[in-house]
Automatic annotation (TrEMBL):
The keyword Hydrolase applies. Residues 15-150 form the Nudix hydrolase domain. InterPro entries: NUDIX_hydrolase-like_dom_sf, NUDIX_hydrolase_dom, WH-like_DNA-bd_sf, WH_DNA-bd_sf, WHD_NrtR. It comes from the Bacteria. Gene3D superfamilies: Nucleoside Triphosphate Pyrophosphohydrolase (3.90.79.10), Winged helix-like DNA-binding domain superfamily/Winged helix DNA-binding domain (1.10.10.10). This is NUDIX hydrolase. The keyword Aminoacyl-tRNA synthetase does not apply. GO terms for molecular function: hydrolase activity. Keywords: Hydrolase. It comes from Candidatus Chloroploca asiatica.
Length: 239
């Protein structure tokens, strides 16, 4: 029988559950960190996991991601970008669960994190020193997020979200090195970032050892431009 609005029966079809997971990165002590929560309940009780949870029927995916992030960690008002959809059979022992993952970069000192009733702890972990095993398939989600983060440095201004309003070019270079996981040639980096037109030089300096350091700011009027900031492999900026 051909289906119609009158004959359609949704109970004829199985309904997988849908969750959202939010991968949040920041820079602490000049090292890339990710925010994880320690699960209080089954499954994976006691394991560290990416913040997230089940969506409500009356909210969009990004609304659900923002709600879960705020409820589980206290982090609010951040720009989230959809990362990928993870749906391997058996990834969640509770049922057939499909997860839509999001990614964001924030300044750690701009947010106060806290644990929820669903977790025993919430903590920033250095990407180079993660727990031995994460809950569910969150090790795969995190690996994918790090890979995407590195690739996006070639054509977006994502790294500037980790900087204060005023910064040195050396601080910007260090952020790129932390995300890329490799050392960059100082001279080439300075040349390319200045040629990009993304920075505005200020008259301010920061005192320290030796000569004062010139401070720069990001040109917000160029934040929405679709452009290639760097082509790291083609330009061979790394040593």
């Amino acid at each position: 029988m051909e289906e119609s609005a009158a004959t359609y029966d949704p109970t004829h079809y199985q309904r997988p559950s849908v969750t959202v997971d939010v991968v949040i990165f920041t820079l602490i002590n000049q090292e890339l960190h990710v925010l994880l929560v320690q699960r209080r309940h089954w499954p994976f009780e006691g394991y560290w996991a990416i913040p997230g949870g089940f969506i409500n029927m009356d909210e969009s995916l990004v609304e659900s991601a923002r709600r879960e992030l705020a409820e589980e960690t206290g982090v609010r008002d951040v720009y989230l970008e959809q990362l990928y959809t993870f749906g391997e059979v058996g990834r969640d022992p509770r049922s057939r669960v499909i997860s839509v993952a999001y990614i964001a970069l924030i300044s750690a000192d701009a947010q106060k994190i806290r644990a929820s009733d669903e977790s025993t702890d919430v903590r920033w972990f250095p990407v180079s020193g993660l727990p031995e095993q994460l809950a569910f398939d969150h090790d795969q989600i995190l690996a994918y997020a790090i890979s995407r983060l590195r690739s996006k440095l070639e054509y977006t201004t994502l790294a500037f979200q980790l900087l204060p309003e005023l910064f040195s070019i050396l601080e910007l270079k260090h952020i790129y090195e932390q995300i890329l996981g490799e050392e960059l040639d100082k001279g080439n980096f300075y040349r390319k970032i200045k040629e990009s037109g993304l920075l505005e030089e200020t008259q301010l300096t920061r005192e320290g050892r030796g000569r004062p350091t010139r401070l720069w700011r990001f040109r917000r009027d160029r934040a929405g431009e679709k452009q290639f900031v760097f082509r790291w492999r083609e330009d061979r900026l790394s040593r």
